[in-house]
Amino acid sequence: EPLLRRALAIQEKTTGPSICTLQSLFTLANLYHAQGRYPEAEALLTRALAVGDQSVGSDHWFTAPISTVLADLYRLQGRYAEAEPLFKRVLVINEKSFGPNHVIVAESLANLAMLYRDQGHYTKAESLLKRALPIVEQALGSDNREIAQILDGLALLYSKQDRYAEAESLFKRAMAIQEQALGPNHPELAQTLIVKPINFHSN
Question: CA 39, CA 179: separation in Å to the nearest integer?
Answer without folding.
Answer: 39
